[in-house]
Amino acid sequence: MLVKDIVQIFEQIAPGQYQESYDNSGLITGSPEMEVKAIMLSLDTTEAVIDQAIQQGCNMIVAHHPIVFKGLKRFNGNNYVERAVIKAIKHDIAILAVHTNLDNVLQDGVNQKIASKLGLANTRILAPKSGILSKLFVYVPAAHLEPVREALFNAGAGQIGQYSECSFASEGQGTFKPGTTAQPYSGERGIRERADEIKLEVLLPAYLSSKVIAAMRDAHPYEEVAYELVSLNNEHQEIGSGVIGELPEAMTKKAFLEYLKKNLNLEIIRHTIGGSSIKKVAVCGGSGSFLISNAMRSGADAYVTADVKYHEFFDAEERLLLCDVGHYESEISTLEIFSDKIKEKFPNFAVIFCSISTNPIQYFK
What we know:
Strand order of the largest sheet: 5-10-12-13-14-11
Distance between the termini: 46 Å
Largest sheet: 6 strands, mixed
Oligomer: single chain
CATH architecture of the largest domain: 3-Layer(aba) Sandwich
Number of domains: 3
Strand content: 25-35%
CATH topology of the largest domain: Udp-n-acetylmuramoylalanyl-d-glutamate--2,6- Diaminopimelate Ligase, Chain: A, domain 1
Number of helices: 12
Order of helices and strands: HEEHEHEHHEEHEEHEEHEEHEHEHHE
């Protein structure tokens, strides 16, 4: 198995194009063609994590947080980032980060994992993203409809939520006059022709546009294909920030905090005064203060996230039980996603959970 095979697993569930603009998800060190002996899973890639990977014979690390966020101009070992990168390269260790792209997907995503640990049902994206969908219209002779449609589906078009191979077709008649070098469709060159055609419509992720258009051209019988590609402002219900769902039954504030502490294995919870009966719960792993207003507008009784600042607790206005559970604590279950997806594809491959806590925050009790 090669590094690129592991990269592909996560590209399929969380394409790199869905990461935030500030992020640096993807293969950070190592060649895609390098053979993988064993994989270590960790939330962060510190020197200590790399040391453990070396000791246990792992030449690839799959982490949630990228060790490199900004461009490095020097490699002098002056800080923990430079030292970690130098050590990884020196020991031929590939580092793959799957960060906000995994945060931003519902299926198999970070927030859905948290929601499942809390037993939330009817989950959906809290703040869906817009502007990441396109719609393709292509005009196809009726006899060639199925090959073209199949080619579009195989290239990744036609996926709507949990439904695949979605399309719409309507009949019509096209007209055209072949030029001096064009191939006539049925009649003579220079004569206006008519053709019974199907207008085929499919949705597609915008980042797949080039791939889908190429597949369409290859399958289409015309030398000049009539098509339209339109960017949509529709919200993508499967892509976005945070998740919201419902508990099996309502809980008191105290009971919910105890439940939260137990299910996420927490030492401490910082929370607001607000909230009494808790039924509808929003979650966002990591720094989720930017979604407080979304959680309130959605009617959530509680919002579970991390890295909430003092004044941001006021934003809950005592209407929302705002819970800060800690950044590390909110995302550590991401490693379970990594393990499940790798073992699903390669059941007998060595996948090792790092035993080192990379949490930089400690609690004095």
